Each structure stands twice: as C-alpha cells, then as structure tokens.
Amino acid sequence: QVHLQQSGPGLVKPSQTLSLTCAISGDSVSSDSAAWNWLRQSPSRGLEWLGRTYFRSKWYNDYAVSVKGRIIIDPDISKNQFSLQLTSVTPDDTAVYYCSREWKAVSGLDYWGQGTLVTVSS
Amino acid sequence: DIVMTQSPLSLPVTPGEPASISCRSSQSLRQSTGYNYLAWYLQKPGQSPKLLIYLGSNRASGVPDRFSGSGSGTDFTLKISRVEAEDVGIYYCMQALQAPRTFGQGTKLEIK
C-alpha cells in the first residue's frame, strides 16, 4: 500500500518561496513505472496540475505553463521523497496543495497526499 | 492544453436513483492502442480526490461496481447505477493523454 505524507508550512509571505515535501512509503521515487506530481486546488482555479518528476533511465520534469519559471519539483532519492518549491508567491498562490502518484499502467493519479492549505499573506 | 468540460455542474439525486455525468475534451483522448486516457475522481468533503475510473472505463481497486465509465474520443460519461448517501461530493474528469494534466470544473452531487 502506497502512502504519501506531506509536510511544510501553512503560511508564506508574499514574494517568498513556498516549500513542501511529500514523503513516499510503499513505492520508490525512482520507480520507472510512476510519476510524482504536485497539484493545487482553490475556489478560483479549481483543481490545477502544477508539474511532475519521474525517472525513465534519467530524470524528467514537466511543469504547467502557469507556474513555469517559478517552480521546481525535485526528487530526493536518499529520503524517498520529492519536493515542491514555488518562488515569488502572491496571494493568488493561496490554495490546498496535494502531492500524488501517477502509475504508468493506470494513467491516473491513484494515490494522494492529505493536502496542505498554504496561505500567502503578510 | 486540452480543455475538459463537464456537465451538469450540480446534480441533485434521490437515493436509489441513477446518476450520469458528462465530460467532453477539446481533443481526442483515444490513442492508437485503443485506450482512452480519461480518468474520473470523487472528492468527498474535506478529503483528497480519490481515483474511481481510469483509461475511460476501468474501475480502480475497491470502487463499487455501481460506478461505471464509458465513452471514447472526446465524449465520456460516468454513471452511478443507484446513488447512495456516501456518493455525495464533487466528481472530476481528468485527461491523462498529455502534460499538463487538465481537469473538468467538477460536478457536485448532492442527495435530494
């Protein structure tokens, strides 16, 4: 059974960097059959996919255009986790953030973290 | 980006009655393999979304057989044969054909 445990601050000041971590149990961040995603949800944006990291002989990343240039999703093999960094945040980045696994054979996000409400406010 | 459009956005249903949600994509989600890269999720109040259906018509592990997915290309449907009280929440479709993954606006199912 796969479990994703999110951690990180719930309050970030404008212009600073939002940082969240997703610890994986029951699978490996280096699996060649999974992709590790970050998404967010807010009343104004609905469910929004932000990006993913995955390993297929080498590491790949894909990012949403809406956050490209501000986002980094990084795997940490030693800790079996992956992280989200979103720089230069504004109040518009206030949302519930989720990490999730996409399993290749399923082509769906089959496991999700518990969600983290991140508020951008001074 | 592929645009996903759901209807209706609100769905009041009497327990025991069937329910149906439509999802349309701005381009075909069917690949030459025959698979349709469309997934359905249910988000219950206060919870993370849960995968119900993948590849258009396959139920995820543990999903009751009253849930079924159908459709191909650009038109898809999620059906609940007999709605139960525990089915309340917001249903989303998502295309898994290409990055970025994109979602429908959501359909809120409520019990009459």
Describe this structure in words.
The complex is a heterodimer of chains A (122) and B (112). Chain A contains no helices and 11 strands. Chain A is mostly beta strands and 122 residues long. In chain A, strands 2, 4, 5, 6, 9, 10 and 11 form a 7-stranded mixed β-sheet that branches. In chain A, strands 1-3-8-7 form a 4-stranded antiparallel β-sheet, with no helix packed on it. In chain A, β7 (71-76) and β8 (81-86) form a beta hairpin. Chain A is globular. Chain B has 112 residues and is mainly β. Helix content of chain B is 0%, strand content 48%. Chain B has no helices and 11 strands. Chain B has strands spanning 4-7, 10-13, 19-25, 38-43, 50-54, 58-59, 67-72, 75-80, 89-95, 102-103, 107-111. In chain B, strands 2, 4, 5, 6, 9, 10 and 11 form a 7-stranded mixed β-sheet that branches. In chain B, strands 1-3-8-7 form a 4-stranded antiparallel β-sheet, with no helix packed on it. In chain B, a hairpin with a 3-residue loop joins β5 (50-54) and β6 (58-59). The radius of gyration of chain B is 13 Å and the shape is globular. The relative contact order of chain B is 0.33. The mean pLDDT of chain B is 97.
